[in-house]
Design a protein that fits this description.
This protein has 207 residues and is α/β, with parallel strands linked by helices. It has helices at residues 12-20, 43-47, 60-63, 113-118, 125-144, 148-154, 164-184; strands at residues 4-8, 27-32, 36-38, 57-59, 69-73, 76-80, 85-88, 93-95, 98-101, 156-160, 194-198.
Length: 207
Amino acid sequence: MTERVLILGGGFAGLTVAQGLRGKGFAITLVDQHNYHLFQPLLYQVATGELLGEAITTPLRHLLPSYGVSFRLGNVIEIDLLRCQVHMEDGDVLEYDFLFLALGTVTNFFGNKTISQHALDIKGLEGAETTRSRLILALERASQSKNAEDRREWLHFVVAGGGATGVEFCAALVELLQNLVPNEYPELDFREVQVSLVHGGERRLSR
């Protein structure tokens, strides 16, 4: 009987496992809650409108056949290690002989509840696209504001986190605003735009 391999997660780790097991005689299934592989390092460019989401996603059903891997779309709700079963949100139960967990990570707010409750994040495609929409909405609100203080609030953008993504996002955001405000929002003064980077560590871009 062919041994069954179940890979949970279609990110870089999951695809690497799938590629490495190609041609080894296993029946391999990859499960992900999305039907695409996401190139996360460029999410900040989607958030600032430099790229469309389609530019950094590849359909998993396009990639996986070349690895000899089948695809299953869905959300995992439980893993039964004793019975070697994965329970899906829709009620299906997937059985396996070998299980690889490659489910990725979530945004680390470092215990700051205020940021976690109110900030936007660009960990996934939906978050990046929402951030882009909110950026444009802020410019629209600022352009309609008759009060200088309110306008400055709409034009103040704060980025939390001084890692690679935070620093890259700040630079891309400034570049976006430098081009967008004078050309498309002539009623705004770019000198009122402010981008702030806040970071809890001693050094930005710390290793």
